[in-house]
Amino acid sequence: MVTxxxxxxxxxxxxxxxxxxxxxxxxxxxxxxxxxGGAAGPAAGPSPWRWPRWRPRGxxxxxxxxxxxxxxxxxxxxxxxxLIAGAVAVPLVRRQVRARAAGRERARRADAVxxxxxxxxxxLRAGGRPAQALRFGAGSTGAxxxxxTAVLAAARFGGDVPEALxxxxxxxxxxxxxGVAACWHVAMDSGVGLAEGLQRLEAALRARRDQRERLRAxxxxxxxxxxxLALLPVVGLAMGWAMGAEPLRVLLHTPAGLACLTVxxxxxxxxxxxxxxxxxxxxxx
Length: 285
Known about the structure:
75% of the residues lie in helices and 0% in strands. By secondary structure, the chain is an all-alpha fold. Helix 5 packs antiparallel against helix 6 and helix 10 packs antiparallel against helix 12 (255-284). The radius of gyration is 28 Å and the shape is elongated. The two termini are 52 Å apart. Pfam families: T2SSF (PF00482). Keywords: Cell membrane, Membrane, Transmembrane, Transmembrane helix. The chain crosses the membrane at residues 6-24, 69-93, 222-244, 256-276. It is found in: Cell membrane.
């Protein structure tokens, strides 16, 4: 049986290790400033009390909190099963984190395309030439991404600007650049005002973005329900532990507990997947 004092000590040690890994040295710098009487900068010189520290390469994402929590559960439950679950959870959480980051990047690119239409149209109405307006809009919004050099070179030296814009529009979130390419093509061939076409395209893209944001706001309640369903088993375990029922020992060290843990985990995973699938289908629709 794990008493409260060793459990708290283990949790404190694991938390200290996590803060040490993710802290980036901020705590050590503050400690040096405090004990040095506020001295800072290169004039203070290297500190003789600097401890050697291993710094991980790359960026530590939130998925690495899963093994930290698994270590705490393994110490509290005296079982290696939480360690296995924590190792399995790392790639799954990393996938979700990357998907969220990709979604934010797509939204950022879509907003940049809308800003590009507005800036280029404004420059054209102020009397600027199309190539100059496109160069100014690309520099101020960053909507062209990796294809910015090719698009600006085509605009400056008389190349195929619509084709360059279509290539830039293949990036996720930058699909609106295909509309910019169409406006450019029509304006160069028939002499129709490019500024007016870009203003209409901006209004259409902005309306589409507003519709997507309204739908996302309406579905926020459904996502909150999904998160609540995911946290209910954790709340139940915490309540059982507070009442002295030792739920971790029952779940991890008895055949009935292992069976309940397996069946309950599978059912919860299936329910969360189904609920998330319904919400995502509504978003895509």
